[in-house]
Amino acid sequence: MTGESLFQLAMVLHVGAALLFLSGRHRYALLTLLTGGVVLRYYFATLDPFLHDWDERFHALVAKNLAQHWLKPTLIEHHILANVREEWTDKHIWLHKQPLFLWQMALSIRMFGATEFAVRLPSLIMTSMLILVVYQIGRMVFDPVAGFISAFILSCYQPLLEMNSGMMGMEHNDIAFLFYVTLSIWAWVSFEQRGRQRYLLMMGAFAGCAVLCKWLTGMLVFSGFAFYHLFLHKDLFTTATLKNLAKALAVCFLVFLPWQIFILCRYPVEAHFEYAYNSKHFFQVVEGHEHERWFYIHILPEYYRGLQYLIGWSMVVSLFFARRLRLAAALSFMFLLVYCFFTVAQTKLPSYVMVVMPLGLILLSAVIGWALRLIWSFGTLRYVAGGVVLIALLLRFIHWFMIVENHFDPDTWQGHTRAFKLANTSAIKQLYGKLPANSVILGMEQLENIDEMFYVGVPAYSGRYESDYLFLKDHKYNVVFWGDSLPKYARSDSTAHRIRDYVPGSLPKSL
Fold this sequence. Notes:
The protein is mainly α. The protein has helices at residues 3-22, 26-45, 56-66, 100-112, 116-141, 144-155, 158-164, 171-194, 197-214, 220-232, 239-266, 268-283, 295-298, 300-304, 308-320, 326-344, 357-373, 380-397, 400-407, 413-429, 448-455, 466-474; strands at 439-442, 478-481, 497-498.
């Protein structure tokens, strides 16, 4: 089945799920929606047969190396040359991100090989499971209608799908992060609804997993817990509530603290550097990611396609009727807290607020669901109006022309980049198994050596410095130059090689 056919099948399944739900067959509707969501995610995961520049290529290489030594996260496995940059894009020991999402990717690579799909498979699974998780939260906090609408939107939510394809920066890291944060919120809501201790322990465990993906913002659920019990339930300082909070926090710390102790003992220099580097994001602009103060407010329409005002309406309703919608007010609080925190922070990236996107979808779906219930008993009108609303949401949150622009249109910047990446990756893959074991590649495009080390595994560098060449020759390495010709200093050396000596054919021109 072609990619376009997969996309069309996914759209048909989403429409079918909407009709099944409107006819009252909720279980079949959810199953059909989940199937459509999986098909759509598979389509996006297989769109680009190469690793994207930021940051998928780095995550993929670290995960590949972790598959060989699970407690030693490395980016550049063998740093042969000494003139490396002290940046996270060129490290040996790589602690730039917490390891859980990398371990997941490493397991997939261990099972299915070093391929793009193996890198993206954990994200495919997590974003598919999120459809059910968001449905359950919406159903418990509001009703099944709000739950289904929020799951329906999330299933076809294009920014999340583009993260699944690896195209959006921090892709698989952010997917794992929002997955575990959302699971922790589901577990907490389940605990408040049902009172079973196992949900409380799951809340702590999932929050710990979130921290083990992207640090302390993963404990967001505890802010919702404190707000709910301090201002709404007004029992935060009772013995029972404090015991519950302590249990959940203890489980959370048991999940993420051992890794922090391990790296501080095993890799103290690298660990202290990364902790300090992470704290800089709040107090100063890092890596040029500077935006105006109200950046996250201005990009709300990009996240919610102009429906962000419904989130505000839902917040107002939940806060004014807190006795009936206490959990909804807590969801609103967590949503606002994240936006306020990152608005104050100096470093700003669009994906930082993605963690509360599921909460935003649930809140706006509650308002849409309320409007639909007004016409719920009007027979045929129920199907017409409900069908129109759900199909309109489908078309609003996913656009075929945006997929074409991002992945296929040769006249866009993305299309130009894609053409280079396809040709370059094809040339790299052809090298697999064709270079001697002691080979080192010099002169690759900036950071394309990361891709080569993922697909081929031969040490590679972007520079073509004579000093590097002489060092490698002195240490009996087989030096291979990436490009059409040898540099002047190596032309008289009969042992110097070009890539085309091993892989005939043209190499892609640089960007």
